[in-house]
Write a structure and sequence with these properties.
Length: 253
């Protein structure tokens, strides 16, 4: 019913124009993560697949497009029935391009913040921070949903035998980390390690910052947002590193 309700209104209302349709898609995503049968069904609904794999959807909703592509790519790759190679490749392209897009835009957002002037208005500031929030939303989803995190790392690892996708993902994370390191609001030392007397307060501030970012509050400052993105970069890098270690140990065994 959710698939039907969403697809029947595709031509009536754009995705980004109503929070109700966003919530429908979020609910459907949550159901698909929990049910492989529902995921396979949703991935084979032509109207839904066309919408989620389109360049328009990717450019306007990069974290959503990337997460859906990871989910559907894994579903098609593990399905027992034979799939058309073109379908699998299309979802592969979306999730690889989507992740590169997230990292690239976040890096540009960092660099543009470095060049911020007093004439920049509030809308320009929000545009710059939205790219960081998109990356943060993606990393938070992988952090809170082990299945998606495993699907993402497994897919990159499996594709690494025939493509350079895994190395490209690592390079994208490295480029973003370098941009954060060179940013105007890069902290001189990690939060919570400045002074022994301020440890308890830093922990409290860290918890407050995490709560703000989880809700993607517009009140989060650029420095706080950059620190959270840095943590996301670290978590994703560790995920890829641990996945590679598992793959190497299994080959050795």
């Amino acid at each position: 019913e959710i698939v039907l309700l969403y697809t029947c209104t595709l031509d009536m209302v754009p995705y980004s124009s109503t929070s109700l349709r966003k919530r429908l898609l979020f609910s459907l995503f949550a159901f698909c993560v929990q049910s492989e049968d529902l995921c396979q069904y949703a991935s084979r609904v032509p109207a839904l697949a066309k919408e989620l794999s389109s360049l328009t959807f990717l450019h306007s909703n990069p974290p959503d497009a990337t997460l859906w592509a990871i989910l559907f790519f894994t579903s098609f790759a593990t399905a027992t029935k034979k799939n058309k190679p073109g379908i699998l490749q299309s979802w592969e392209t979306v999730f690889l391009n989507g992740f590169s897009h997230l990292c690239e835009k976040a890096s540009l957002g960092i660099l543009s913040n470095n060049n911020t002037t007093s004439v920049d208005n509030e809308n320009e500031h929000e545009q710059k921070d939205s790219s960081l929030k998109n990356f943060l939303r993606f990393s938070k989803c992988l952090e809170s949903c082990p299945k998606i995190a495993q699907d993402w790392s497994n897919s990159l690892t499996s594709l690494s035998t025939t493509t350079t996708s895994l190395e490209q993902a690592k390079q994208s994370l490295l480029d973003l980390n370098n941009a954060l390191t060179d940013s105007a609001y890069a902290p001189s030392c990690p939060p919570g390690e400045q002074t022994s007397e301020g440890k308890q307060q830093s922990h409290h501030e860290k918890r407050k910052e995490k709560e703000k970012v989880t809700t993607l509050s517009l009140s989060v400052g650029p420095g706080e947002l950059a620190i959270s993105v840095r943590r996301g970069v670290k978590n994703l890098s560790l995920l890829l590193q641990s996945q590679r270690s598992v793959g190497l140990s299994s080959k050795t065994d």
